[in-house]
Amino acid sequence: MKFLRMLKTLVTAKGMEVLLLGKEVTMPDGASLGEVVNIKKDLSQDRIWMAVDNLSQEMIIPIEQIASVTNKVVLFDDLPLASLAVDGNLSSLTKTS
Q1: What pLDDT digit, counting tens, does each position of 71-92 carry?
Q2: Domain that holds residue 12
Q3: What is this structure's pTM?
């Protein structure tokens, strides 16, 4: 059963990569956080994050914070600052290839 869950996470991460890479990430008020440059996953926890680059400062944002996706990725208004991490603090994450 764990194998099927890991496989589901891999497929979802690949789909998120196709959908999100290169899109601008904004808050509902229009404030830009940067551009999605990578999708990261942790198979053991069944979690997926997007890496957002803003002037060479990379943030990791969980995909659960996405409110909508059109030509931009809009996050929920109540994004807690604790959910953001600077790249390198989540060493167990792996890049999709």
Answers
A1: 999 999 876 655 555 544 444 4
A2: 2-95
A3: 0.76
